[in-house]
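SAMPLE LOG
Freezer: B-3
Tube label: C17
Construct: single chain, 143 aa
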Amino acid sequence: MHILILMLAVAGGAGLSVEAGLLGPLGSEVGELWATFSIFAVGSALTFFLMLFFSDRNSASFFSQPGWTLTGGILGPVYVVSLTLATPVIGVAMTMIAILTGQIGKSLLIDHFGWFGGKQRKIDKDRLAALVLIVAALILISQ
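STRUCTURE (predicted):
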């Protein structure tokens, strides 16, 4: 099961690279905020239809959740606008490595401190070495 989830995550990451490649030209043509809106509009419509047919009808109410858990939605547009602005200037590969650097750096902190109710996983030398290698990739790919 873990290998399937890992493969799904890798496929999701590959999809993000395609999304970055699409957003750059779209943002150049219609504007960065319109490009961001279009991505979320299409994604929201698709998610709505998936919910209609595949969602558990007896799940907990969306509105009964703590407000802070819903603030993650603010970060999506920030991410997409970042892709839209950065990709035409520095390219898809550099954009994705830069985003990965930020993701891994913050993820290590979230795991280390167990923020957001997640399982605590201390930063050890192996995790730190992985972050250093990603930063090295960022430096090498920028050459």
